């Protein structure tokens, strides 16, 4: 794991080697890159040969500096910030760069991809709707998604369960990998016989396989 400070953008945590690709990875609304979930996900991705480039939005950095919580800014602001990170990470680096994130971070990545396109998307616990508000769908931009899009979702996710998502009209570019009995943080119930670490490993493997499957042309990463 390497920590870098990118001028004008802030700190970046780089984990793993890009044997199967690079993933620019954003966090969720309430927890940054130091959350146990994000740390374990980056470690699992590294094992699978995916290099994660993990950044934090400016509001999260201010939370750390001020020592108090603050809400995220408007999503349009986050999209522009994500775009700056994408542009910086794309300069002078070979191979495709996938965009992705946890919950809100994945939503922002998908909005950016719908606007500008992307080599691919990895959305971890996509917030299809707010909890207990299944009518408030966050899918208006999805018809504009044309890049390979992988959603890794717990079957019990309060932001979109398997039964709920089955009724959505998703674009052909989208594919779903369901983590059995996982919630929004991919935590299963003890009675399921599964554990969160196992589901994180499964999710990371699904991301790596999707990146390998969609790699093609001169910019593709070499297969293992």
Automatic annotation (TrEMBL):
InterPro entries: AB_hydrolase_fold, KANL3/Tex30_Abhydrolase, NSL3/Tex30. Residues 21-211 form the KANL3/Tex30 alpha/beta hydrolase-like domain. SUPFAM superfamilies: alpha/beta-Hydrolases. This is KANL3/Tex30 alpha/beta hydrolase-like domain-containing protein. It comes from Halomonas organivorans.
């Amino acid at each position: 794991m390497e920590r870098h400070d990118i001028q004008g953008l802030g700190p970046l945590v780089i984990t793993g080697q890009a044997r199967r690709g690079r993933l620019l990875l954003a966090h969720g609304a309430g927890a940054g890159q130091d959350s146990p979930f994000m740390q374990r996900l980056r470690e699992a991705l590294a094992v699978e040969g995916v290099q994660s480039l993990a950044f934090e939005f400016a509001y999260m950095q201010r939370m750390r500096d001020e020592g108090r919580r603050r809400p995220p800014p408007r999503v349009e602001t986050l999209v522009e910030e994500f775009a700056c990170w994408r542009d910086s990470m794309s300069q002078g680096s070979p191979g495709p760069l996938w965009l992705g994130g946890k919950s809100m971070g994945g939503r922002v990545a998908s909005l950016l991809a719908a606007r500008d396109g992307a080599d691919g998307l990895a959305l971890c616990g996509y917030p299809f709707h707010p909890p207990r508000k299944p009518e408030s769908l966050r899918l208006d931009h999805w018809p504009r998604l044309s890049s390979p899009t992988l959603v890794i979702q717990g079957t019990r996710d309060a932001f979109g369960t398997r039964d709920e998502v089955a009724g959505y009209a998703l674009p052909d570019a989208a594919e779903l990998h369901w983590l059995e009995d996982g919630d929004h943080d991919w935590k299963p119930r003890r009675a399921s016989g599964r554990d969160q670490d196992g589901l994180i490993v499964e999710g990371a493997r699904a991301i790596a396989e999707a990146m390998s499957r969609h790699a093609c042309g001169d910019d593709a990463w070499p297969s293992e």
